[in-house]
Amino acid sequence: MRSIFESISSLIVNKPKIVFGVLFLVFITSVIGMSMLTMQTGNDTYLDKNTPKGIAFSHYEDTFSQDTLVILIESNDPLSPDVIKYLDQISRPLQNLQYISSVSSIADLVKQANDGEIPRSSGEIKKLKESIPSEVLERYIPSNLLTMMMIKLDVGMTEQKQKSVMNNVRSFLDSTSPPPGVTVTLTGNPVFQQEMGDELSKSMGTLIMGAMVLMVIVLGLLFAYVSHRFIPVLIVAIGLILTFGIMGLFGVSINTAVIAAFPVLIGLGIDYAIQFHARLEEEARKGSLADAVRMTITRTGPAVMFAMLATTMGFIAMFISPVPMIRSFGLVAIIGVVVCYFTSLIGIPLIAVLIKYKPKGKIGEEKPTKADMVLSKTAVAIAKNPVPILMIAVLFAFIGLQVDSTIPISTSERTFVPSDMPAKISMDKVSRTIGSTTPVPVLIAGDNVLSPDVLKWIESYQQNELKLYMEITGSTSIVDYIKIYNNGTIPSTQFEIEEVITKIPEGIRNEFVNGRTETVIEFSTKRLEMPQQDELKTQMNNDLILLTPPPGIKASITGSFDLFTTLISDIAESKEQMTLLGFVLIVAFLALIYRKIHAVTPIVPIVCIVGWNAVAMLILNIDYTPMTACLGSMTIGVAAEYTILIMERYLEERETAASTIDAIRESVRKIGSAIMVSGFATFFGFSALMLSNFNMISNFGLTTVIAVLFSLIGAVAIMPAVLSVLDELIHDVHDIEDRVLHHPHKE
Question: Which locations, inside or outside the cell, does it occupy (predicted)?
């Protein structure tokens, strides 16, 4: 391995212009790749569409839950003839727009019940209203101030086509003349997802710019002892562009989690750059620039690489998560840290050669800073009395690991986005009136779901759920529409059922029936928190077992309601599995690389830090989300770097030091300050996440900042205590061996 680093250093020293030319071509390719980046929002970030559950969900979405635009009409009387007439007037032009499959509103039901005509008076409309079941009526008129028109889009539309449809609908609505006092708003999930994507793009720019500005400030304040102190910022910027380029070229989309990964990469990337730059400055004070470049690459290159690989262990653990968002975070983080490492390994020595780098300090000068001395004294004090420190640290970690399972899990997408996002405001307006805008769909499949027996079972199940659960506010199925068009009863023969079905408007019929093989019941509910939704789903699934469907018929809860409640259990299980796998990977990595008993010492502070994180989340009232769920495994990776650096320097000093205390004193004195500088740089890089107006990202930022602080404490406080205790145990074991071998027991 050393020969590889030697070859790199020789190439940079002897042929810097060629290396620069190659890197410039790579940079240009990355810029092209950046133009190919895509934004990903919606359910694909939460559910793997290739799993059986994902396939079933996609089938339901494509068949019954086509993307729907909602035209929200606000007026003093949503059943006035003027409002009904306006809805009828805009219905046909909207239906004729490209990529729109159906348009439905209360106007369709009123016309159907009045021989195809719009009544001229409010009295006639109110009379017709009585013949429409309340569950169906509430679907279109949720309150005395609102009515809604549903616009179903074609199946399998691309994001670009959806955007085109929304623009066309907005343009058409702007050209219409609503009745006086009527407000028209376009909303719905496609609008929500589009605005969310736009906000994510803005947030990404804000976070990256914020992180870079903070890096400049940190390096300006803490890295003044080197020449050209801002080179690491340039290196990290190049590393980010290369990362973007790789993502674009290989089709890795940007989502909420990926955006959160970039400040993390900036924090870790600046850490690597600082390590290389500091070593270059140190070596440049000893001799020629060529020798400094060689020493920096051959000595610091492998050490930082081991630390980088240790960090990736935590990110690799994220791949076992069933949540695509978490896996994408891990993938981008791995790509980013590897790219940032190689950018620092090659970029900093290359820049040094090209600009003929001169160190800031005097040749031969090696003077510890005040920070080094303070950290060294603190570490020695802890090492001399390690047991109380370890007992307190382990106690808080134990408490954290115990309370971790009690921290709530939030999976509601609307709590993740900015509170002032227009689409969120309009959808919240509806949900405050009618309760949750996410229905509870029950998919019913079989050879003939329109047989009299199945229709009667559907009616029975609907009535049972409405009667049992106060959380359910209404239900709608094809049965309700069949009864509307058959004088309030279910036909007794198959022929009569087929005849009634043809009378139901096609747009409404397609929402509830797919031929004869599938139909769906949609239950509406109050606004419920995710744990309440999860409990309701469990109870309704139990009812499907008790109220068995007719032979040959299967029924199951599906849709977004099932998706986001299932996400709770997915996060609860995967966050523990990711953390455990992270520990296993880091232990295996340390054992493979070092093959010494000291390789286990970093595990103690890492376990403590993971436990402390849980205590901090509980105190700060931060919920687990798809982002914070990966905090444990990410912390393992970040904390491993600092603890490994301390351990490596300790092992080096222990070979010549007279005692354990002397080795700890010298190791912390020589590396403590560098760790604190890189640690604070990482801290401020992560803190940029708190600038996001997405709650999920800002809370993740707060927890990662705390994790970095804990990691620094673990490195400079807990590691000396662990090393002291371990060396004492090793010394005691050696004493016992000596007594047994040299002073055998005499009988």
Answer: Cell membrane
Question: What is the distance between the alpha carbons of residues 259 and 205, in angstroms, rounded to a whole number?
Answer: 9
Residue whose tokens read 């139990």 = 542
Answer whether 268's CB lies under 8 Å from 312's CB.
no
Single pTM value for the model: 0.74
CB distance 298 to 342 below 8 Å: no
Confidence of residue 154 (pLDDT cuts 50, 70, 90): confident
DSSP secondary structure string for all residues of 358-405: --SSPTT-----HHHHHHHHHHHHHHHSHHHHHHHHHHHHHHHHHHGG
- Cα separations (Å) of 4 from 8, 26, 301? 6, 21, 10
User: Quick check: 432 pLDDT over 80?
Assistant: no
Spatial distance between the Cα atoms of 236 and 219, rounded to a whole number of angstroms: 13
Per-residue pLDDT, 747: 44
Edge-to-edge strand list for the sheet holding 100-104:
100-104, 146-153, 68-74, 183-188
Strand partners, 513: 519
Does residue 597 surpass a pLDDT of 80? no
Calculate what percentage of the chain has a pLDDT beyond 70: 92
Q: What is the rounded distance in angstroms from the CA atom of residue 282 to the CA atom of residue 348? A: 14
CB neighbour list of residue 721: distance below 8 Å, 6 or more residues apart = 382, 383, 386, 387, 389, 390, 393
Residue in 263, 437, 415, 257 with CA at minimum distance from that of residue 336: 263
Q: Give how far the C-alpha of residue 324 lies from the chain's centroid of Cα atoms, to the nearest Å.
A: 9
Residue 254's SS3 state is strand
- Measured between alpha carbons, how far is 272 from 239 in angstroms, rounded to an integer? 11
Report the Cα 279 to chain-centroid distance in Å. 36
Q: What confidence score (pLDDT) does residue 287 get? A: 82
- Residue linked to tokens 């998919």: 443
Contact 668, 639 (CB under 8 A): no
Give the helix ranges, DSSP H, for 421-493: 422-434, 452-468, 478-484
User: What does each C-alpha distance from 436 to 203, 418, 462, 467, 491 come to in angstroms?
Assistant: 28, 19, 18, 19, 32
Cβ atoms of 626 and 417 closer than 8 Å: no
Q: Using the predicted structure, report yes or no on whether residue 311 has a pLDDT greater than 50.
A: yes
Per-residue pLDDT tens digits for 191-232: 877 787 777 777 777 888 888 888 888 888 878 778 898 999
| Rg, Å, the chain Cα set | 32
Q: So what's the pLDDT on residue 18? A: 94
- d(C-alpha 8, C-alpha 22), whole Å: 13
Work out the average pLDDT over 371-377: 78
Query: Which range (70-84, 95-109, 152-166, 494-508) has the least confidence?
Result: 152-166
For the chain, helix (H) and strand (E) counts, in that order, are 28, 9
How many C-beta neighbours within 10 Å does residue 418 have?
16
β-pairing, 518-525 vs 472-476, is antiparallel
Task: List, in order, residues 6 or more apart from 488 with CB less than 8 Å away.
Answer: none
Q: Please tell me the distance from the alpha carbon of residue 153 to that of residue 158, in angstroms, as a whole number.
A: 11
Q: What is the pLDDT, as a whole number, of residue 2?
A: 60
Binned at pLDDT 50, 70 and 90, residue 434 comes out as low
Residue identified by tokens 């995967």 is 574
- Determine the Cα–Cα distance for residues 189 and 557; give it in Å rounded to an integer: 20
Per the CB < 8 A criterion, the answer to whether 250 and 256 are in contact is: no
pLDDT in the model for residue 746: 47
What gap in Å lies between CA 308 and CA 344, rounded to an integer?
A: 12
Residue 318 CB burial class (10 angstroms; 0-12, 13-18, ≥19):
buried
